[in-house]
Amino acid sequence: MKRSIYKTILAAAALFVFSGCAYADGSAVVSIEPTSSTISVGGTATVDVDISGVTDLYGYQFDVLFGASTLSATSETEGGFLATGGTTFFIPGTIDNVGGSVTATADTLIGAISGVDGSGTLAVLTFTGLAPGTTSIDLENVFLLDSNFNSIDFTTQDASLTVQGGGVPTPEPSGLLLLGVGLISLVGFGVRKEDPKF
User: Fold this and answer.
1) Which residue range forms the structural domain that includes residue 23?
2) Less packed terminus of the chain by CB within 10 Å, N or C?
3) How many structural domains comprise the chain?
C-alpha cells in the first residue's frame, strides 16, 4: 500500500516538472482573491489561491510572486478544495522574502480515484505589510492535472495589495498636561490684569 502511495506521488511530481503532456478539456480559472486589498504597515493580509470551473482536478502546482520591498510572506496552508475528493499530500511552497516569491506549492490526491469538480480554495497565504506601496501578487508556473495525469487547460487572474502608512504620528499631549498649561495661563493672565507693570 505504501509503495502505491509513493508511486502516485512520484508520478504526480514528474508530471508537474514535465508539462509537455496533452491538455484535457476545460476552462478553469486559477485566481488570487481578493483581487485588490489594503492593509497598514505591520498589518497582515490573507489571500486565497482559488480555482473555479474545474473538472477532475487531481493535483496542482504553482508559484506566487510579490514585491519584497512592500510585503513579507509569513505562512501558507492547504485550502479545503482538493481534500473534498479524498486524502491529499500537500507541499507548502518555499518562502523567499528577499526575492519576493513562494515557489513550488504542490498538492495531489492519493490513490486511484477521480479528481474533484467545481470551485474552491487551493491554498491560503498570509502576508505582512513592510512599507507603503502597491504590489502585484502574481501566479506563475501553474500546472493542473486530472486523474489520468493529463494537464487541465486554465487561465489565471492576478491581484494587487496596497500597504498604507509610513508617517510617524505626532503624539498628542495628555489631558492632564493640557489642563496644567491652561491653569498656568489663567494665573498669568490674572496677575497681568492686577499689576500695572504688566
Assistant:
1) 2-173
2) N
3) 1
- From CA 49, how far away is CA 77, in angstroms rounded? 10
Residue 27 confidence (pLDDT) = 85
Mean pLDDT of 130-146: 98
Residue type, 44: T
**Range in 35-39, 104-108, 182-186 with the lowest mean pLDDT:** 182-186
DSSP 8-class letter at 82: G
Distance CA 17, CA 138 (A): 20
Beta bridge partners of 78: 123
Helices (H), 70-194: 175-194
Flag whether 188 is in a domain: no
Q: What are phi and psi of 166, to 5 degrees?
A: 125, -35
The one-letter amino acid code at 161 reads L
* 77 φ, ψ (degrees, to nearest 5): -130, 160
Establish if 111 belongs to a structural domain.
yes
Residue 124 falls within a domain, yes or no? yes
